[in-house]
Amino acid sequence: MLRIPWYVGYPLAGACGYGVLYLAANGSVYYPSRYPSGRWEAQAQIGAVDVWLRSSDGVKLHAWWVESPGARIATLFLHGNAGNISHRASHIQEIAAAGSSVLLLDYRGYGKSEGRPTERGLYADAEAGYDYLRALGQPIVVHGESLGTAVAVDLAAKRPCAGVVLEAPFPSAHAMAARVLPVLGPLLIFSYNSASKIQRVHAPLLFIHGDRDSVVPLELGRALFDAAREPKTFWTVPGADHNDLVEAAGPQYRERLREFYAAL
């Protein structure tokens, strides 16, 4: 019977245990809802048209396109880590009403899109959406929500944008992990580092954050704001939690976006 010395066995067991925890922690970042789960009846309600894209690594992606009559800009909307595009109808209605057409993209593994989500994969998916809008010839606003803010910052740091909107942003998944699981969390998650990229974003920035956000604390949004270049604006929405920001903001949400678009 093969005996493994303790000074080999203990570190090996520790490394295996860390590996299991690392994979579990990083997999827990994503909570996708795959079709037919969702509120797909919303497509007809908001007048969305199906769009099919291919990422650079060949993954087939699904998106909705909503055209705003007379719009001079187009928004690429990058949603958060849960659900799918069918859960974002209220966002899309407000963005279109504020004066921008919208491409609402489902990342790989979400909704009707193929594949499974990874950090590198989501970045590639966002680039596919950007390339689709670039072909239309309109100025592009990148609009991220929660996890989508990290995808938006990565994209805007690499590609020219007319403007960037970040709802409930955070400096990094590492910083988020420290809030959710102190001590152990920061040892496991190192992804989605917006703080290291935001200085490379040269477009005007609009930060939006609820003062009662129970998922991404307001101070994390402020920390990323402090790291960003001018021109930038931070709008704190009174009484808003993480998932009711549009509803809590009411008519001001549309007005703030309209003002931001007009100033671009």
Structure at a glance:
The chain is of the alpha/beta class and 264 residues long.
Give a verbal description of the structure:
The protein has one domain (6-263): Alpha/Beta hydrolase fold, catalytic domain (Rossmann fold, 3-Layer(aba) Sandwich). Helix 7 (218-227) links the parallel strand 9 (205-210) and strand 10 (232-237). Strands 2-3-6-4-7-8-9-10 form an 8-stranded mixed β-sheet, sandwiched between helices. Strands 1-5 form a two-stranded parallel sheet. It contains 9 helices and 10 strands. Helix 4 (119-136) crosses helix 5. With 264 residues, it is of the alpha/beta class. The protein has helices spanning 6-27, 42-46, 89-97, 119-136, 147-158, 173-180, 218-227, 245-249, 251-263; strands spanning 31-32, 49-54, 60-66, 73-78, 82-83, 100-105, 140-145, 163-167, 205-210, 232-237. The termini are far apart. The protein is globular and about 35 Å long. Mean pLDDT is 89; it is low at 6-27.
Neighbour order of strands in the largest sheet: 2-3-6-4-7-8-9-10
Number of helices: 9
As for the CATH topology, it is Rossmann fold
Number of strands: 10
What share of residues are in beta strands? 15-25%
The global form is globular
Taking all Cα atoms into account, the compactness measure Rg is: 19 Å
Distance between the termini: 72 Å
Helix/strand-derived class?
Answer: alpha/beta
| Relative helix content | 25-40%
Would you tell me the overall average pLDDT?
A: 89
Number of domains: 1
Question: Per CATH, which architecture?
Answer: 3-Layer(aba) Sandwich
Major sheet characteristics: 8 strands, mixed
